[in-house]
Design goal:
single chain; alpha+beta; Immunoglobulin-like; 3 domains; 5-stranded mixed beta sheet; binds heme C; binds copper (II) ion
């Protein structure tokens, strides 16, 4: 708070860019709150990697400052001290001092080797996951995260949104997102279905590019929550990945106990066979369909894919599809009866077989079993033309 009023006051003086102000604010807050300007400006450290990374960062910053200050002072001093008067002839007077030159080469070299060594050691530590780590498969796609657990529980991560004034982040259903058991190393195996994304949890100090066509991984052990509730952290995409990049948020929950985690797992996998439409609605969110398909009658919401509202019941004239690709032969498929059901099944299982007119992006194949497919189709049918 103190920092904010300082920057407000500085802001009134004008002239400084907001990035500069933010930097200054971080230092000021660090000075006032922690008695140190060596704050990294990062949120609280909450994983096994965070401490070592923060100290590496502080070490490098201190070394850089120790060199920067005297060199700059000497530079400015020499510029004035040896300035020639206008018209005076510049002449060279270079001599040679071997001990001096060896010293100023060897000492900085040793420092750089030390910096390299500590960085390399921690980078190695971050990439070699312990063998008993709990592994979650993470899929990134424009513009959401999805998490597949060893239990088969799959959860969409489309939980976070920037508030309308874009100043705060808001969550929706707390069962969505990346839920983690307490006290165990977590390994994430990550793929992208479309473009380059980057997985980032600031409190854990972990960040990893997620590249299409390549599997990347990362691991960490989150700190145990102090209270009885799961600790929540924001998960961000830090690689500009298209229009809604800034909304590619999700939440990470570290459960305080194994029971709490297993309760979540039960909720996450529970589907009610007596209520296929409601189960389908759950799957729509969990499986990440909600990232691209809207279900609102007015068509509001995501529109990367066609809306499901009123889809069931469209005539062959109203529902044109191409075979194979957007340029393949075109035909109409009526969204009623068996033909419609077959089309839905095919377009979910094998998204590139048939292609809805007017859409250029293929749908990413999502793994669904027969029961889930049935629930999803019942849900799509329930949203059909009234
Ligand atoms: C990354 C965005 C994306 C996600 C996630 C996604 N879809 Fe799609 N979907 C599309 C696009 C784009 C199309 C249109 C192109 C096509 O027909 O292949 C489409 C088409 C469809 C169609 C055909 C609709 C029509 O009007 O003909 C169905 C059915 C469908 N998706 C179901 C699903 C289901 C079920 C899920 C979740 C398991 C899902 N989609 C997840 C993007 C997505
Ligand atoms: Cu992204």
């Amino acid at each position: 708070m103190a920092g904010s009023s300082i920057t407000t006051a500085l802001g009134d003086l004008g002239g400084l860019g907001s990035a500069g102000l933010a930097w200054l604010e971080t230092r000021m807050v660090g000075l006032l709150a922690e008695g140190s300007i060596w704050t990294t400006g990062m949120p609280a450290a909450k994983s096994n990697h965070a401490g070592p990374i923060d100290s590496d960062y502080a070490f490098i910053t201190i070394i850089c400052t120790i060199f920067f200050v005297p060199i700059t002072i000497a530079l400015v001093y020499f510029a004035f001290r040896y300035k020639k008067a206008p018209g005076e002839k510049a002449e060279s007077d270079v001599s040679h001092n071997t001990p001096l030159e060896v010293t100023w080469t060897v000492i900085p070299m040793l420092i750089v080797v030390v910096m390299f060594y500590i960085g390399f050691r921690h980078a190695n530590m971050m990439y070699a996951a312990p063998a008993d780590a709990y592994t979650v498969h993470v899929t990134a796609s424009q513009w959401s995260w999805s998490f597949l657990h060893p239990s088969g529980a799959q959860m969409g991560g489309d939980i976070g949104k920037l508030s309308p004034d874009r100043k705060a982040r808001e969550t929706t259903d707390p069962d969505l997102g990346l839920h983690l058991p307490p006290g165990v190393p977590i390994r994430l195996v990550m793929n992208s279905t479309d473009v380059l994304h980057s997985f980032y949890i600031p409190e854990f100090r972990v960040k990893q590019d997620v590249v299409p066509g390549k599997t990347s991984s990362l691991w960490f052990t989150p700190d145990l929550p102090e209270g009885d509730e799961p600790d929540m952290y924001w998960l961000l995409c830090t690689e500009y990945c298209g229009k809604d990049h800034s909304n590619m948020l999700s939440a990470v929950y570290v459960h305080p106990t194994m029971e709490s985690f297993l309760q979540w797992q039960t909720r996450a996998t529970a589907l009610d066979p007596d209520n296929p439409v409601e189960s389908g609605a759950k799957l729509y969110v969990r499986k990440g369909c909600a990232t691209c398909h809207s279900v609102a009658p007015d068509g509001s919401g995501p529109n990367t894919g066609p809306t499901w509202s009123g889809l069931w019941g469209l005539s062959a004239d109203e529902h044109q599809v191409h075979e194979g690709s957007p340029t393949g032969p075109k035909r109409g498929v009526a969204m009623t009866g068996e033909a419609g059901e077959e089309y839905l099944r095919e377009s979910i299982r094998n998204p590139t077989a048939l292609w809805r007119e007017g859409y250029i992006q293929p749908m990413a194949a999502v793994k669904v079993d027969d029961t889930e497919l049935f629930f999803l189709i019942e849900y799509i049918k329930s949203l059909g033309k009234q």
